[in-house]
Amino acid sequence: MQISILLHFMIYTILLSDSAGLESVNEVSKKNILKSEPSKTDIQKYQLFIKNEVIFQNLKPFWKSTGLCPPDPHEESYNFLLSPDMKLNIFHIGSLPRKGISQVRIHWMLDLVQMRVSHFKVEYDFSRLDKLIYLLWENDLQPGFELMGNPSNYFNDFENEIQVYLWKDLINKLAVHYIDMFGIDYVMKWNFETWNEPDHHDFDKLNFTIQGFLNYYDACSEGLFSADKRLRFGGPGGSCRIPTKGHSPICWALLHHCSYGKNYFTGKKGVRLDFISFHKKGNGSSNFIIDEEIETIHYIFSNFPSYINTSFYNDEADPLKNWSLPQWWRADSTYAAMVIKIILNHIYFYYVEKGSDLVKDAKFNLLSNDNAFLSYFPNQFTERTLLARFQVNNTYPKYVEFIRKPVYAVFGLLSKLCPNILSSNLTNGGGDLLNNWGNNIGALATHCVSQEEISIILYNSADTYKNGSTANVDVFLNTSYLKENTSARWSILEVNNWKSNPYLVWKNIGMPSYPSIEDFVLMKSKEEPYMKGPYVFPNSTLWKIQLDVLNPSVTLIHICKKPQKLYQVKNIRFLQVWNKTLQISWTDQNNRCLSSYIILYSFDLYGSYHRLNKKRLLFPSYWHTCYSKKIKCNIRGFYKVFAVDYWGRHGPSSESFHFKG
């Protein structure tokens, strides 16, 4: 590619303060703990050329999903799913910018339902499940609702006609109950799904035959349909191995039944299947996931052509199976970069390039990681989780605190992507054209038309390996999208092992089992992406910026034209963690080009407010600690929040929200 004009732009180095702001921490030792510089012994040159051409419009963010499974015994799963630890876990997941994650897919939810049958009358008690659904709802999340579990262990045979009809009634009553409680607009967003991994036969006290599973499926489908025909239902949520490579009889029996079989209740041929869900994990390789998906989807198209327009979900697309198996790379940006690599693989393969003729018509609509589990000592960081969980047992009272891992932070970066994908070419130092995805280096450029905004995300990932390389990338951008861009600003946000790695901080302070408040302050100072800027954007039609994209890491370039105004932050919510700590979150769906949020506090509603956060705050949440030996403070009181944009403008303050303690 020939480029005649190159405008070089020098990056300013003046950044906002990165002070953690806790007086009792020795500042010299703190700097030593937080200081870590990458080695740049292996530098590889790349160029990324971004054109003034949209190659895909209206990309839906299909990756906003996570999941978890409660431990045995499942009949007592309410103790786990309604525990204080899970409430804090869900609070954090719901605190990502712009609903960075919107669905939590949870196993065994029906075990929270109690059922009584007496004198030919059936009564259902949804009170425990109500609490879980309400927990998701108040955190702006929705369930991925697997119709999985056995209320009061009543059911044991789905070839028994009475039990099949009773199951249909249960599902109908459940759906009607939540439509009445939350409204159809909320419930119709849910992905109702079959029993998880049916070919693994993890049915607890139920004994499913293949015919029994098909009867169960029809009962679920008809129960939901009779509640409201707009409710979405699919499955089988399993490995679905093709017959030449594995044994998945229930999976293929279900697809055959829905395509060619008869509905148990209506007797008519054909049963609705709104989406086909399967689980294809990576075995340590990001590209392995796509390969497995291609194999299964091609088999489905070849044997069940009626599914050509059916949506496909990979709702357990994790890089490696076994969530509790400790892996060093799950602790830091290695995992984060690999997740971004997998997502970009799917964007390019299924949406932009239609990467294989075998599956070019596939409608791929959901990619989920199963990483909303709670980690346990001594593997706080190294299990497959979004957060590192610490059980602090040397205080009174004992309490649990979470640290957000880099894999959590990158979902905040994804929330800045735009729906229109721009054409881009990635080349190496020798000028050879590379794929934008599937390699150790990948990139995606996007454009928001209404906001005149450009977001470019790059990753450097060798999957579960650290190769120590640095990708030195020259980015060339045609800026004609930013009309009259004299007021534009831009920034760089990075998630890597040097600027945003709380695990490294924990290691440097001796890996304490029970971190102190001072320790938590240090770790939390590295939870968010590291931001450079904002800077003034040059008034030109061609722009060049040089980046060092470290391995492993994710980098986002964010360019914004000045919006007309900032919007008010809403819905401040609180969750007390300990006597002296309070987790705060709020809703901000409208402001995008922000350099920080500011948190204000007053003990009295009409008293004077003072600023709490001393450092930049990029995500719509704040951890407030009132643990100082020099200053008297209180977590009870009134809180307000406002946004600050790239131009230094302050948005309107939120209403005052009262935390009573």
Give the number of DSSP strands. Answer: 29
Largest sheet: 10 strands, mixed
Number of helices: 13
Q: How many angstroms separate the termini? A: 62 Å
- Structural class, from secondary structure content? alpha/beta
Radius of gyration: 26 Å
Dominant shape: globular
Name the average pLDDT: 92
The low-confidence parts are 1-32
Describe the structure.
- With 661 residues, the chain is α/β, with parallel strands linked by helices.
- 23% of the residues lie in helices and 28% in strands.
- It is built from 13 helices and 29 strands.
- Strands 1, 14, 15, 16, 17, 18, 19, 20, 21 and 22 form a 10-stranded mixed beta sheet that branches. It has an 8-stranded parallel beta sheet with strand order 2-3-6-7-8-9-10-11. A 4-stranded antiparallel beta sheet has the order 26-25-28-29, with no helix packed on it.
- It is globular and about 70 Å long.
- The relative contact order is 0.14.
Task: Give a brief outline of the structure.
Belongs to the glycosyl hydrolase 39 family. This protein has 661 residues and is α/β, with parallel strands linked by helices.
Tell me the layout of helices and strands.
Layout: H1 27-34, E1 42-56, E2 65-68, H2 77-81, H3 84-93, E3 103-106, E4 114-118, E5 121-125, H4 127-138, E6 142-146, H5 161-182, H6 184-187, E7 191-193, H7 210-227, E8 232-238, H8 249-260, E9 275-278, H9 286-303, E10 311-314, H10 333-352, E11 363-367, E12 387-392, E13 399-404, H11 406-414, E14 420-428, E15 433-434, E16 441-448, E17 453-460, E18 469-478, E19 489-496, H12 502-508, H13 517-524, E20 530-536, E21 542-550, E22 553-560, E23 570-578, E24 581-587, E25 594-602, E26 610-611, E27 621-625, E28 637-645, E29 657-659
Parallel strand pairs: 1-18, 2-3, 3-6, 6-7, 7-8, 8-9, 9-10, 10-11
Antiparallel strand pairs: 1-14, 4-5, 12-13, 14-15, 14-16, 16-17, 17-22, 18-21, 19-20, 19-22, 23-24, 24-27, 25-26, 25-28, 28-29
